[in-house]
Write a structure and sequence with these properties.
single chain; Rossmann fold; globular
Length: 386
């Protein structure tokens, strides 16, 4: 077995513990829509304690058997595994064939031992741990990535999924818990020839709330625009929630149609052709008013989860932005602001635009890394952002 000091990233060798890598893989699965909860993660880690966490095949099948809860999860699992650990999805879907052992391992020995142990002396047990650059990449700022790291980031973002916060509708559906459904109960009694039967129940159906993404493509957001638009593309395709996407800069452009292309690169090329104000200035107040006048007031923002992905730099009147944010807050179910610069040490929302918008923001989160976008997706689903 090859002996290495650790996983090598762009800066050098970094040792990564197996549990951290595996838990990061579970987070990536949750971000892709797989319900890999804490119980399943514990089962996954327990299975790998028995097997070999340094072998790609053992990691693949242990995760597939413990982290997937339905047939629909299998395709997502294969795509996330290929993006997280390298290779292709086809490798994971090979018929009963274990993926090739491509994971690199780190071996730490408890103490130096001679090449030929003395009689009665036991060999030191090596501690093998996965060394995956994907776990390190999750916490890296988009602005500091190399071209190779950006390629890996694009593969991880391609398997993202965004689920809106569920809301109860007026439609009723059969359920195990709820109120008695008289018609279904009577039909069941008649089907049994008048014999007593358990009452049939019904409850209100749930559906995810609409999500509206406003992505800042101005000059100050140039280092983050590509990753955020790929996040928006994945949000448009990865779940059942209806997602609307707009770009904001000096103009407001609706790019929902351009993002319907399945291929992310094709979709972003279409967005680039449709958006005339790449790397320009920022007029958040005016563009937010244009959005509300044309789309939001008519129903797109009503009861929706509206996410603004911007650093908050404003060239226009901050008072106009504050007024339009109050207006948006009254229409939307929740307003979330993701600021990539929030993660920087010593950051304070002192920019005029950001300070004017914050009183009308329900959740103020980071947006600089893959882990931050995973957290943003959890907040969109309704998780507490504290």
């Amino acid at each position: 077995m090859e002996r290495e000091a650790g996983a090598a990233d762009h800066a050098g060798s970094v040792a990564v513990d197996a549990p951290a890598v595996l838990v990061g893989f579970a987070r990536a699965l949750r971000a892709a829509g797989v319900d890999a909860g804490p119980d399943r993660v514990q089962a996954f880690l327990g299975a790998l304690d028995v097997l070999r966490p340094g072998m790609r095949s053992d990691v693949y099948w242990s995760g597939r058997l413990t982290l997937c809860g339905s047939r629909d999860d299998l395709e997502r699992y294969d795509r996330v595994f290929a993006a997280y650990f390298g290779g292709t999805a086809a490798e994971g879907r090979a018929a009963r064939g274990a993926p090739p052992p491509r994971l690199r391992v780190t071996v730490r020995e408890a103490a130096p031992t001679p090449r030929t142990p003395l009689e009665g002396e036991r060999d030191a047990e090596p501690t093998a741990a996965l060394a995956s650059s994907a776990e390190v990449l999750r916490h890296r700022d988009f602005a500091g990535l190399t071209e190779a790291e950006r390629g890996q980031l694009r593969r991880l973002l391609a398997v993202f999924a965004l689920r809106g916060e569920p809301r109860r509708t007026a439609r009723l559906r059969p359920a195990r818990r709820g109120v008695v459904d008289p018609r279904r109960t009577v039909r069941e009694v008649l089907r049994r020839g008048g014999e007593p039967a358990l009452p049939r129940l019904r409850a209100r159906a749930e559906r995810p709330r609409r999500v509206v993404l406003l992505v800042d493509v101005s000059g100050s957001m140039a280092a983050y625009a590509d990753a955020l638009l790929r996040f928006a593309h994945a949000a448009s395709h990865g779940g059942r929630v209806r997602t609307e996407v707009f770009t904001i800069g000096t103009r407001l452009t609706r790019v929902t149609r351009e993002l319907t292309h399945r291929d992310p690169d094709t979709a972003l090329a279409a967005v680039a052709a449709a958006v005339p104000d790449w790397r320009g200035g920022t007029r958040l107040g005016e563009l937010l008013r244009a959005f509300l006048d044309r789309w939001g007031q008519r129903g797109m923002a009503r009861g929706a989860v509206v996410v603004v992905l911007s650093d908050g730099w404003e060239r226009g009147d901050p008072e106009l932005l504050a007024a339009q944010m109050r207006r948006l807050h009254r229409l939307a179910h929740r307003v979330i602001w993701a600021n990539p610069r929030k993660a920087r040490p010593g950051y304070a929302p002192l920019a005029a635009g950001m300070a004017a918008a914050l009183p009308s923001v329900d959740s103020f989160v980071e947006g600089h890394s893959l882990a931050a976008l995973e957290r943003l997706a959890a907040v969109v689903r309704g998780a507490d952002d504290a």
